[in-house]
Predict the 3D structure of the following.
Amino acid sequence: MLLPRTPLAFATALIGENVFQSAAITTSIAIAFETIGHRNPLAATTFSAIVSVLNIPNTYMVLVDGWGYAWRGVDGSLLIDAGASLAACGLLTLLLRYLSVRRRAAADLAAVSPAPEFAAPAAPGDDGSW
């Protein structure tokens, strides 16, 4: 929207967007591999399920960007795309903050009240009662 509508500006924006999309896809695949783990007999099925979920935004964003284009042309499409991205980042920030606070509270609770230690049960005959 702020750049001139020239082939150079289009190419620069396209390449920049592809760089960040590639980084996001690489991160998503790395998380998928970390989730699957080593020597998992269902690795192929799990990988396919996780990667198929990664394609959901590719389907609905076409529709959402189309609404933006119908609203204000190319500028509307870019505004809707940017707004959806910022909303997703905001939701992810709130989720990560919530999980961080929750994890910190669980760690503080464990530090304050450690789990009770129980003596190992005596084997029959240890006290001569057999």
Q: What stands out?
A: The CA atoms of residues 63 and 69 lie 10 Å apart. Residues 56-112 form the longest helix (57 residues).
